[in-house]
UniProtKB/TrEMBL annotation:
Subunit structure: Homotetramer.
Function: Major role in the synthesis of nucleoside triphosphates other than ATP. The ATP gamma phosphate is transferred to the NDP beta phosphate via a ping-pong mechanism, using a phosphorylated active-site intermediate.
Reaction equations catalysed: a 2'-deoxyribonucleoside 5'-diphosphate + ATP = a 2'-deoxyribonucleoside 5'-triphosphate + ADP; a ribonucleoside 5'-diphosphate + ATP = a ribonucleoside 5'-triphosphate + ADP
Residues binding ATP: K11, F59, R87, T93, R104, N114
GO biological process, one term: GTP biosynthetic process
Source organism (scientific name): Wenxinia marina DSM 24838
GO cellular component terms, semicolon-separated: cytoplasm
Name used for this protein in its record: Nucleoside diphosphate kinase
Pfam families referenced in this protein's UniProt entry, alphabetically: NDK
Keywords: ATP-binding, Cytoplasm, Kinase, Magnesium, Metal-binding, Nucleotide metabolism, Nucleotide-binding, Phosphoprotein, Transferase
Keyword Cytoplasm: yes
Cofactor(s) annotated in UniProt: Mg(2+)
Length: 140
């Protein structure tokens, strides 16, 4: 197993309900270390750029409007197999399908407003980390 880094976003439905600490505790309990973190308010254009892979999907406009609706917390998580570990802690996209104890099972409001984002592969993790963080913000 290798130490990896992944990009996580605590989405507006969760920041609005003041759940950042509870969600961060789930990451830390799973062995993930928060090595960078900041609170930002995306424009709709920035949200659209971040989620451009979904541009043709019917939920794209709803998703990017939601992601720009209120501040988010963007963070870099580090640990052994961090990408998969983070997705395991997040749970399934639709909270109705998410395993008990996962972030989405406990906190998500709907398939769209599902509290967290996590990178899905090493290449996307690298791209998504550099989308939000400069080298200076990332301690080695
Ligand atoms: P994410 O990218 O946010 O970590 O979530 P994911 O991999 O589990 O899901 P993905 O298929 O990449 O979808 C990205 C986000 O789009 C919203 N979505 N809405 N209304 C819908 O049917 C629908 N489907 C997806 C969710 O916010 C999902 O996390
Ligand atoms: Mg995804």
């Amino acid at each position: 197993m290798a130490t990896e880094r992944t990009l996580s976003i605590i989405k507006p439905d969760a920041t609005r309900r003041n759940l950042t600490g509870k969600i961060n505790a789930k990451f830390e309990d799973a062995g993930l270390r928060i090595v960078a973190q900041k609170r930002i308010h995306l424009t709709k254009a920035q949200a659209g750029e971040f989620y451009k892979v979904h541009a043709a999907r019917p939920f794209y406009d709803e998703l990017t409007t939601f992601m720009a609706s209120e501040p988010v917390v963007v963070q870099v998580l580090e640990g052994e197999s961090a990408i998969q570990k983070n997705r395991d802690v997040m749970g399934a996209t639709n909270p109705a399908d998410a395993a008990p104890g996962t972030i989405r099972a406990e906190f998500a409001e709907s398939v769209g407003e599902n509290s967290v984002h996590g990178s899905d592969a090493p290449e996307t993790a690298k791209e998504e980390i550099s989308f939000f963080f400069s080298g200076l913000e990332l301690v080695g």
